[in-house]
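Fill-in record for Pyruvate kinase.
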Amino acid sequence: MDIRDKASTGMTGFDQAIDKLRLGDNIVWQVDSVSDYRKMVEPYVRQSKLDNRKLVYVRFGGHEPVLEADPAIAVYPVDAEKGFESFATAVHSLIEQEGRKAFYVFDCLTDLLQYWHSDLMIGNFFKVSCPFLYELDTIAYFAIVRNVHTYSTIASIRETTQLLLDLYRVGDNYYIHPLKVWNRYSPTMFFPHRIRGQEAECITASAESAELFSSIQRGGERLDYWDVLFHKAREELSQPPERQEAAKRMLMAMLIGHESRMFELCDRYFTLEDILAIASRGVGTGFIGGKSVGMLIARKILEREGGERFAPYMEPHDSYYLGADVYYTYIVQNGWWKLRTKQKTKEGYFRYAPELKEKLLCGKFPENIQEKFVQLLEYFGQSPIIVRSSSLLEDNFGNAFAGKYDSVFCANQGTPEERYEAFEQAIRTVYASTMNEDALQYRLNRGLFEQDEQMAILVQRVSGDHYNDLFFPHLAGVGNSTNLYVWDKSMDMDAGMLRLVFGLGTRAVDRTVGDYAKIVSLDNPQRKPLSLAEDYRKYSQHYVDVIALKQNTLSTKRLEDVLPYDLKVDKALFASPDYETALRLSELGYTGYKTPDILDFDSLLTGTGFPGLMKELLALLSGVYDYPVDIEFTANFTKDRRFKVNVLQCRPLQTRGLGKSVHIPELTDGDDSFFSSKGNFMGGNVRLPIDYVVYVHPQAYLDRSVQGKYEVARHIGYVNAILKHRYAMLIGPGRWGTTTPSLGVPVHFSELCHMSVIVETSSVEAGFMPELSYGSHFFQDLVESGIFYAALFDGQPDVAYDPQRVLRLDNALSELSPQSATLSDVIHIARTAGMELFSDIVTQKLLCR
């Protein structure tokens, strides 16, 4: 080896013992104190300065500095309190910046425990940083305090580092005992060495070695620091309240996050015992994520504030929580951290996401985590479960991430091995969804690009029961404490609303093909939206999402195939005979048929206490949050019409609020309006200028092939980006954001997110129909982004619509988006300076002129 590839420890005798340091070496000292570590750092730094090495000190510990201020040493303070990902990324960046052959001193790694509370994550940090330092031919000094970390952490460090050295101080003497020295060997290298000045005396005599090691206290196997803290906190349960509160807040910082509005809410309602109960159902370390926190705090509020009003009606939960550190460990231990670091850059944000997503779908979990997964599945037995995303920013004030990450149902049938593999793959699927384009765009649009989005997971038992070979709840849906979609001026919007479906709630949160959830205004549950008055059967639910136990999968069944099952309750609660359809069939000459059913939930809404309970439940949660809330729930009924509600999720409903009442100008015969309507809009009271109208021709769109329809959607995305800072209205046939091109334009939300207004129009001839999907993920995106929504049912009373108002104006498509010029027959962009949109909630008037 070239002499230039070697460097000195600053101690001549020890250099001889280990044949010096080599470029690329990471050196880890196991010490009893930071002051002992400093004794080894000093000669190394002194010699490095004499050799004109580039010296870098990475400062993050709470201990006294390892190095004194020195103009010859570059000091990088790195904030470990921001979490593993932020810290590891910052260290990676500074290593990259300093480049090749820099010499490093790091603070004591054990100090990271006070910020991360996890031995596992210290091992993960070393595992991602050490290879990068080696790759750049650096030399780096690290330290860990002896008898603090778990054997598995030490094993992870030993496996990764080039040198692992025990440093002992006995009396006035220091002893170095090399445990690993990579890629070199001598007959005495792994004996202890007594350090005296520049000399290193090798202790080979058995008697002297035995005397030395017998005088050193050695600890046995230790729990992860995470578990140590929770064990200590449990002891505080017998202490005075102020001691318990201090312990509770410390544990909350580990499980829930740092000071925030949600943290304060949890602090008000959770006790130390509550937090310990949550931790007892945890897998791995780290935050449990926003979805888990939202569900837990909502249940606690109902328990504490609701008293006996809600207790008899609440279905218990027995969820498990996979900590966010499991996600990081999965990435690190599968060797993908470097790719993850590249993806986190501005240049690689979208570029490397597909590759990382593909890898996330096929990794291996650490053995200790696999064992926890087995225990979790043994607990649930063969009950169906759902594996849900619960990222750190999810379901929080300001950002809901509604529908951006995946949730996966596990039917949980088959052999233990089959059930385990399906569960693992469900977790991989949720992890991979962090790289979904919609999720990445959502983060980018909200300025969250550089924030850690730690992915924890919530594992819930699916609510419901067996019905023949199917499993599902009687009822599921979404509830909002404030009803922004009001279609009648007599409605009390503060009474809230529900979006109900029969079966699993997937059909309540997604825009489904040819199906409609039941919209219930809780001030008068029997009130029906005007837009549905003409054909209640057409705009009702026709399919049911269930778990098919024999097929071991999530499945969609026709309503008429499920209703005949023994539902263990009177099905009249949910469905009524559709006599109008029966009459029409009779008139057409059909005989021998059974009168079909229609899911109207009329009996449930008029003959049970369910709507009243939900109205009070939403009002209570909203009152405590001091903010409108959005919940997901299920309900199951008994033959005597009693029921249990399971609150699965609760989050702040992101909305701009009502604003002041808006005066709607009166139209005269000569006025040239674009459209006017009564009701069927969301977004509060507004008066908005409209600079551009982006109009999609219904017939021209319909005439295109399926591939051509998707092409239109992509070009709407280009236009959306171009009009980012303008007041633009997007108007087109059917449903924006549908996954079925025959029902509307299949844009991703990120392709219309910069619009000020979106309008869905009906076209009976072309078969396009808006869907008033209040409560869906699509709706959540609209209100979070402050986008005004309107549906125009052309031909209905109180609706006036004149597309020629904008079509008479020149088409600016080719000018604004030259690559879209070939679509000018489908997309028309009109400059509409002076156009304004007016809406008023109280009168339900909508006008654009």
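KEY FINDING: The domain at 281-462 is CATH 3.30.1490.20 (Dna Ligase; domain 1).
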